[in-house]
Specification:
CATH topology of the largest domain: Farnesyl Diphosphate Synthase
Helix content: over 70%
Strand content: under 5%
Mean pLDDT: 88
Order of helices and strands: HHHHEEHHHHHHHHHHHH
Radius of gyration: 21 Å
Low-confidence stretches: 1-22
Number of helices: 16
Length: 384
C-alpha cells in the first residue's frame, strides 16, 4: 500500500512555512510530512477500492452507496490525526523502524474521522463541509432529483448515518491490516477504543450543551473541547502512535504526549470556535457564523456573555434566534467588543506554551521535537 517514497520511512521534514491561502494549516502539515499524507491517501484509495468492489458485488445500489462513502473519505482534509499519530510513533520508535507495517493504522484514523464528521454534520444540520455539500444534503438532493418517494431530507440523513457507520467498520478493518505482533495490536486497539469512547462522550456533551445553553458554562464548553476535539485530534492519536511503537501507559513519554496533546487539542478547538465566526468561508469551506445562528455554547460565546455589559448581554440574547447574515456580522463585532476574542487568543497561547513545555520533558529526537513544535503552532494559528 505504501508508495516508494515512504517504503523505508524516509519522510521529509521542512520548517513550518505556510505556502498558500487555500489551507494554511494543511500547507504546514504537508511541509512536515508530505510523503506521509500521500502515503495515507494512497493507502485509503487502495483499501476503499477493494471495499467498494466487494459491496458492488452484493448489489449495484450498494456499490453506489459505498462509492459515496469512499468519496466522503477522499474529499480532502488536513489529515491531522494521521500526522500526529505518525509523530507519536516516530518519537517513540526513532528513525529506524519501517513505516509500511504501521501505515494502515494511521490511515484508519481518517476513516474514524469521516465517521465523526458525517454524523456531526447530520446532528448540526450543516449544509457544507470542505466547501462542498455535506453528505446528507447531497444525498437528499440526489433523492429529489431521482423523483423517489418519501422525504428527501429524511432519506439523506438516514443514508448519511449509514455512511458514518460503514466508515467506522472500515476503520476497524483497516486497523487490523497493521503488521504488528498480536499482543501489541491488542494494546493499540485498547487505545483506539478509548479514543472512540471519548469522542462519543464529547459529542454527547456538545449536543447536550446546544439544548441546555442557559445552564452551560465556560468550564463545560472546555470539557466538550477536551473530549470532542483534543482527545481524538491530538492526544489519543499521539498515544496511538506511541502504542504502535510499544510504549505503555507508565512510560514518561506517554505522560508528555498526554500533556502536549490535551493542550494543543483544546487550543485547536478554541481556534475552530474563532474560525466559525471570523474565518473566511473560502478557506474554512463552510459559512461563517453558524455558532451564532444556532446558539452553540462554545467557550468563546460563553466568555462573551460572561464579559458583556448588561446592554451587550441583551444583544447577545439574539444568538441562536435564527439571525440573518447582517445580524450575524453585528453579533460577531459585539463578541469581539466584549473582549472574548482577546481572552480566547490568550487561552490558545497559554495552551501552546504548555504543550511546548511538555515537549521539553519528552525523550524524543530533535526531528520529532521540531515537527511537534511546528505542528502545535500551525494547528492553532487561526489568523493564518
Amino acid at each position: 500500500m505504501a508508495n516508494d517514497a515512504v517504503a523505508g520511512n524516509a519522510l521529509r521534514v521542512a520548517p513550518a512555512s505556510p505556502t498558500g491561502r487555500d489551507d494554511p494549516v494543511r500547507a504546514v502539515l504537508t511541509a512536515y510530512t508530505k510523503d506521509l499524507i500521500t502515503a495515507v491517501e494512497d493507502t485509503l484509495a487502495t483499501f476503499l477500492a477493494a471495499e467498494v468492489d466487494a459491496l458492488t458485488d452484493i448489489d449495484a445500489a450498494m456499490g453506489g452507496f459505498a462509492a459515496t462513502a469512499r468519496d466522503c473519505v477522499l474529499a480532502g482534509g488536513k489529515r491531522v490525526r494521521p500526522t500526529f499519530a505518525y509523530w507519536g510513533w516516530r518519537g517513540a520508535a526513532g528513525g529506524a523502524d519501517p513505516l509500511p507495517p504501521v501505515l494502515p493504522a494511521f490511515a484508519a484514523l481518517e476513516l474514524l474521522h469521516t465517521f465523526a464528521l458525517v454524523h456531526d454534520d447530520v446532528m448540526d444540520a450543516s449544509a457544507t463541509r470542505r466547501g462542498r455539500p455535506t453528505a446528507h444534503v447531497a444525498l437528499a438532493a440526489r433523492h429529489a432529483a431521482a423523483g423517489h418517494r418519501g422525504d428527501p431530507r429524511r432519506f439523506g440523513e438516514a443514508v448519511a448515518v449509514l455512511i458514518g457507520d460503514l466508515c467506522m467498520v472500515w476503520a476497524d478493518r483497516l486497523l487490523a491490516h497493521a503488521a504488528l505482533p498480536p499482543a501489541r495490536l491488542l494494546d493499540v486497539r485498547r487505545c483506539y477504543d478509548q479514543m472512540r469512547v471519548e469522542t462519543v462522550a464529547g459529542q454527547y456533551l456538545d449536543v447536550l450543551g446546544e439544548n441546555d445553553a442557559a445552564n452551560w458554562s465556560v468550564d463545560l464548553a472546555l470539557r466538550v473541547a477536551r473530549y470532542k476535539t483534543a482527545s481524538y485530534t491530538v492526544q489519543r492519536p499521539l498515544l496511538f502512535g506511541a502504542r504502535l511503537a510499544g510504549v505503555g501507559d507508565d512510560d514518561p513519554l506517554a505522560a508528555a504526549y498526554t500533556r502536549y496533546g490535551l493542550a494543543v487539542g483544546e487550543a485547536f478547538q478554541l481556534c475552530d470556535d474563532l474560525l466559525d465566526i471570523y474565518g473566511d468561508p473560502a478557506v474554512t469551506g463552510k459559512p461563517s457564523g453558524d455558532d451564532l445562528r444556532t446558539g452553540k455554547p462554545t467557550a468563546l460565546l460563553m466568555l462573551a456573555r460572561q464579559l458583556a455589559t448588561p446592554t451587550q448581554r441583551r444583544a447577545l440574547d439574539r444568538v441562536g434566534a435564527g439571525v440573518g447574515d447582517t445580524e450575524v456580522a453585528r453579533l460577531a463585532e459585539l463578541v469581539a467588543d466584549t473582549g472574548a476574542v482577546d481572552r480566547v487568543e490568550r487561552m490558545v497561547s497559554d495552551r501552546v506554551a504548555e504543550a511546548l513545555t511538555a515537549l521539553d520533558t519528552a525523550s524524543i529526537d530533535e526531528t520529532t521535537r521540531t515537527a511537534l513544535t511546528g505542528l502545535a503552532t500551525a494547528a492553532t494559528n487561526w489568523r493564518a
